[in-house]
Structure formats: C-alpha cells, structure tokens
Design brief:
CATH architecture of the largest domain: Orthogonal Bundle
Order of helices and strands: HHHHHHH
CATH superfamily of the largest domain: Cytochrome c-like domain
Radius of gyration: 21 Å
Shape: globular
CATH topology of the largest domain: Cytochrome Bc1 Complex, Chain D, domain 2
Structural class: mainly alpha
Number of helices: 7
Largest sheet: none
Number of strands: 0
Oligomer: single chain
CATH class of the largest domain: Mainly Alpha
Distance between the termini: 70 Å
Helix content: 40-55%
Strand content: under 5%
Length: 154
C-alpha cells in the first residue's frame, strides 16, 4: 500500500514532467532555439586559462615551445597553421587531440586539466575571456566550433 506522501511525490513529479514537456513544445513551435556558445563572445574563464598555462609549462613546453610554434615534429598550437587546421572544428575534437598528449603518456590528464589547457590555447590565440567556465562535457564541447578572432580593423 502506498503512503499519501509517496502518492503526492509521484503526482508532483508527473506535473513537473508535463510542464517541462509543454515548455519544450512551445519553444519548438515558436521557432526558438538555443544557440551554441561562441568563442568570440568568451567561452572560458581567466581561472581556467591560468590553470592551463601552468599545465602547459609543466607538460607541453618541451615539445611545443614558449611561443607555441612547435619544436621538431610537434605542431604549432598558435598562429595561422593552428587556426587553419582547427577552424570550424568542434572544441571536442581539440579536447580529444589533447587527450593523446603527451606522446609518452596519452590519457594522463584529467578532463578538467585538458579543458584548462584548451582554455590557455584559446587565450593564447587571442580569443576573449568569458564569465562562465568552459564545460568539460563532451556534448557541450561538441557544440562549440573553434573560431579565430577577427584581425584588427575587420
């Protein structure tokens, strides 16, 4: 036998599900969509970039260099070649690539460390800081394309 409290909880749950369904239907019917965040509007925080910078100096500097131009066979992580390679690609693709580093220890970074490194790369490439941290979730990162900031005067 169900208690009155349990029945009330189930009723409340059913009501909330119904309201959420109505809200989603109204949003779709009115043509409203949720736009993916834009890197040009600031999609990461200064704190993330700062943590990423510390990680870069610990884990990436030896191969990619002080100016991220890449040393020996390591590719550049800044500049036109980097931007041309990653333009339009989802940030998740960059996260997946960072996860393969360093070559001697692929997968050794936590997801938060990987996203912090990505935030530092974004900052170094001239993308603006934001007020909300960059998500470490695949779904969110897959929705945000890599973009380059416009050149001065454009």
């Amino acid at each position: 036998m169900r208690s009155v409290g349990r029945i009330a909880q189930l009723h409340l749950f059913a009501t909330l599900v119904g309201l959420a369904s109505c809200a989603m239907t109204m949003s779709v019917a009115s043509g409203q969509t949720t736009d993916a965040p834009s890197l040009l509007a600031g999609a990461y925080t200064e704190e993330q970039a700062t943590r990423g910078q510390a990680l870069y100096y610990q884990r990436c500097l030896a191969c990619h260099g002080e100016d991220m131009s890449g040393l020996d066979q390591a590719p550049p992580l800044a500049g036109p070649q980097f931007s041309g390679t990653w333009a339009g690609e989802p940030l998740w693709a960059l996260v997946s690539r960072i996860d393969t580093m360093p070559p001697a220890e692929p997968g050794s970074l936590s997801r938060d460390e990987t996203v912090n490194l990505l935030a530092y790369l974004l900052w170094y490439n001239g993308l603006p800081l934001g007020k909300v941290p960059l998500s470490n979730q695949q779904g969110s990162l897959a929705e945000v394309p890599f973009e380059t900031p416009p050149l001065p005067g454009q």
